[in-house]
Write a structure and sequence with these properties.
Elements (H helix, E strand, L loop, with lengths): L1 E7 L15 E6 L19 E3 L15 H10 L2 E7 L9 E7 L5 E10 L4 E10 L6 E10 L4 E9 L5 E10 L4 E8 L4 E10 L5 E10 L4 E10 L5 E10 L4 E10 L7 E10 L5 E10 L5 E9 L3 H9 L4 H11 L2 H4 L5 H15 L4
Parallel strand pairs: 4-6, 5-7, 6-8, 7-9, 8-10, 9-11, 10-12, 11-13, 12-14, 13-15, 14-16, 15-17, 16-18, 17-19
Antiparallel strand pairs: 1-2, 3-4
Helix pairs in contact: 2-3, 3-5
Length: 361
């Protein structure tokens, strides 16, 4: 029996329906899918508290753009985890959760809560993958609360098999003088729906959202990212780097929303896309909303092909054209790849991008 998840990733201010960017939907056949029963934690992490019960604050109202995915994830939920990083604690190594879907673990709907107490510091890594010979589906919701003076890096890597679908939402709340760095990697699945909403809720709160994607063949990516500036002197940036090849389709919605009272806030959203296929579809809708006078906001979207001068330079040094194209394209991801931990995941993502670029030959 097919299940249709409708009106996902709704654009905050709708535009013409004919553009097909206002929202999206996915249809999934859940019949016969076995519920996830794995253990994503491969080891114990000293000093970190783990629970399978949500925090009390999890019942609060969620951001509008995440509402639908939140409801689907809650209704289907078969795995829940609450990670607490104690006040003043610094994690010496990344906290890694590795979710793998396959026979016996085909349907994963997870609710993950990360509470970073005051003054704590940690890197949390979430990796999702699947076996292509089994019908699998992932629907997830992650909530990170970075409390005063906390410094947290959250890395989410979507590595589902090409014939699978993933729907994922991330909610980030950043308190006074806290900092959050979110890295989202889209490197798999037939269709991926991704959303992230960041609320800068305390004076001096800051956040960076870095996104990398590589989409080829007839695969689809639809994402909706948003930063809300709620208090004074907050800073938040969205940086997206992507490649489209063949008949791939991507729809991007990104919003900077400066609310009344956010005097001194600064933000920038930027997307740079390399389109290496004449049949690829690239849609972008950057929004800049302002309810406060004393703010600085910028947005830019760049779509183009490889720099012919760089290509000529590398070829003149004896590098074959196909390899030169890969080198230039891969270099556009360097600023994001360098931030990925552990090193094994960084190498995996780099190898995947190079594999996708093979379709550009």
């Amino acid at each position: 029996m097919n299940n249709t998840l409708k009106r996902l990733n709704r654009l905050q201010i709708p535009t013409w329906s004919m553009l097909k960017i206002n929202d999206t939907a996915v249809t999934i056949d859940l019949d016969g899918m076995t519920a996830y029963a794995g253990n994503p934690l491969q080891k114990e992490y000293s000093g970190i508290r783990i629970s399978h019960e949500p925090p009390l604050e999890a019942t609060e109202t969620h951001p509008v753009i995440l509402k639908d995915i939140r409801e689907y994830a809650e209704a289907l939920c078969n795995y829940r985890l609450h990670i607490t990083i104690p006040a003043g604690f610094t994690a010496k190594e990344p906290i890694v959760l590795d979710f793998h879907l396959g026979a016996g673990n085909a349907l994963l709907s997870d609710e993950l809560f990360i509470s970073a107490e005051a003054g704590s510091s940690a890197t949390v890594v979430l990796r999702y993958s699947s076996d292509g010979d089994t019908n699998c589906f992932h629907c997830g919701y992650t909530k990170l609360h970075a409390k005063a003076d906390a410094n947290i890096r959250l890395i989410k890597a979507q590595r589902l098999a090409e014939n699978h679908t993933g729907v994922d939402a991330t909610e980030i709340n950043v308190d006074t003088e806290a900092a959050a760095h979110v890295i989202l990697i889209e490197a798999g699945s037939q269709k991926s729906v991704s959303s992230c909403s960041i609320q800068l809720e305390g004076n001096g709160a800051s956040a960076d959202l870095d996104v990398a994607y590589a989409v080829n063949r007839e695969r689809e990516l639809d994402f909706n990212y948003r930063i809300e500036y709620k208090e004074k002197n907050t800073q938040g940036n969205i940086n997206v780097r992507g490649i489209l090849l063949n008949k791939a389709r991507k729809a991007a919605k990104s919003t900077l929303d400066f609310l009344p009272g956010a005097a001194g806030a600064k933000g920038r959203e930027e997307e740079s896309v390399l389109v290496l296929g004449s049949d690829a579809v690239n849609l972008s809708a950057p929004l800049l909303l302002c309810g406060e006078d004393d703010v600085e906001g910028q947005h830019a979207t760049t779509t183009g092909k490889l720099d012919e001068n760089k290509l000529f330079y590398l070829m003149s040094r004896g590098i074959r054209k196909s390899e030169a194209r890969k080198l230039i394209a891969l270099a556009s991801f360097n600023s994001i790849l360098e931030e990925i931990a552990p090193d094994s995941l960084q190498e995996e993502i780099s190898s995947y991008i190079q594999e996708v670029l093979g379709d550009a030959d």
